[in-house]
User: Fold this.
Amino acid sequence: QVQLVESGGGLVQAGGSLRLSCAASGRTFSTYTMGWFRQAPGKEREREFIARISWNGGTSYYADSVKGRFTISRDNAKNTVYLQMNRLKPEDTAVYYCASSTSPKGRSWYSEPAYDYWGQGTQVTVSS
Assistant:
């Protein structure tokens, strides 16, 4: 069992920055692929893939909507993954979730079923 706890969300003006953190329990964090998703208001049935990072931080991938503005990173010594969000826009308003995976299980890394455990989410609100 893996527990993930996000923090760092809040209210920010458009153009501002936030840094989200996701702390993981367990001894095998360094073996997980970690991802960030978000769920926007009015889209309760789907979470949008934002970014993912490989177990050693060597590779990362981003959704086109955040590429160049968001950066995913991890510190395996601290069992933590981060999402640095710059130049925030009102359309970035959402609940942000981190997720972990040991294997995509034949699913796309951009889809929710590829991930095994999820955090409770942290609210990010960007005002115009």
